[in-house]
Each structure stands twice: as C-alpha cells, then as structure tokens.
Specification:
alpha+beta, seven-stranded antiparallel beta sheet, three-stranded antiparallel beta sheet, about 35% helix, about 30% strand
Amino acid sequence: MVSLQEFQTIHHSCFPRASPQLGGLFRNVQNRRHASFLVRSEQVPVALTSSSPDQPQRRQVLALGAIICPLLISMQTKTSFAAESKKGFLPVTDKKDGYSFVYPFGWQEVVVEGQDKVFKDVIEPLESVSVNVFPTTKQDIRDFGSAQEVAETLITKVLASPSQKTKLIEVKERDEEGKAYYTFEFVAKAPNFTRHALTAVCIGNGKIYTLTTGANERRWEKMKDRLHTVVDSFQIFNV
C-alpha cells in the first residue's frame, strides 16, 4: 500500500477547487523557425548577387541552395505539424523541476498555495489542471503498489476532501522513456457539485509528480477529450 507519509504534504485543494496556470513555448518555436529562414536569406542571396564572374562558383552556390532550401522547408513543415497536432492547446515546460504538459487555450494561470502550477477556466472554476511536485526516496511509482492501490489512496487521502463521496472509474499504466505513469479517472461528489477528474502520477528526479485535471460532471462529455489530451501529455524528463 502507499505510504501516507510520502503524500502528506500534498495539498488536497488541488482537486475540487484547483486553479490552472500558463506557460509559453510558441515564441521559442517561432523564433527557431524565423532563424532558419534568416540563414537562408543572408547566405544564399549574398553569393548569388556577387559581382564575381566566376560561373562555376555560382553554379556551386546554386547547387548548395537547392540542397539547403528544401531541408529548411522540411524543418519548418515538421515544426508546424508538431504545433498543429495540439491545436487548441498551449504547452508548459518546467525546466527546473523537469516536467511538461499542455492545457486548453483560454485557461489562465493562477497562484494556489501548496501547488507548483495551476491553470483554470475563468468561467468554469472546476475546469482546471494542477501540478504538484514533492521529494521522495522511491525510484518508481510502482514501488508504492499497483495502480489501483495508488489511485485509491490518492483519491481518498489527497485529491478529495473527507466530506466528498468518491468513485474510482478506471486505472491505467503506461511507460514512456523508462518511466512508469499511473493514470486514473474518478468522480468526487460534494453537496453542491460533482467533479469528474483525471490524474497522472509519476516518479523521477527524486520527486513524485501529480497532475490532476477535471471538470464539472455536467460538462464532462463536452470536456473529456480535451482533459484526456492534458493528462496524456504529462511527461517527466531528467534534470
């Protein structure tokens, strides 16, 4: 079973009233794309407009341009495709703690005490994503137990308040780049609302990471695909 000491510092407010936050990689992507074409425009045309009468040299430059230009266009196409593959989402990368994820466009970053990052919808406060990071001596999330055991412990002891009625719907396990992730779906019912949520948990860099996203039960069918995109995008990288 999961040791509660490992999770005791996780603020349970990350579940029902979590508020989400913002990051920005698009500027970096755009800058890299523009830099590629600056190289092309500064190097090739200068040689082509040279006053040198050396025709073989000009043919060499033209040949070089014919090789470089398609390569640059290919690089731009791949970058554009990567951005469009998450259309409607914005990326977040925390280089200090070593994690990344995407969140729906329009959500805003807010500060919530005890949480590492939080983004939320300003109109629908239950639509949010929050990340928590805490030190651990464990090396793998499986060291705490099965996905079912970890999910049940987190839901009852961390992600929902004692007054809420909770139900675990589904648990999954995935491996990416040598790291194990547990992902689970659950609902938590309070007197005045029911929240449908997804959580991913992973261990890396001597830390345990949890990402939780969700929405009001009445909006689950509308939001579930976007929320699955958020939780599935969560990745831990070595720092």
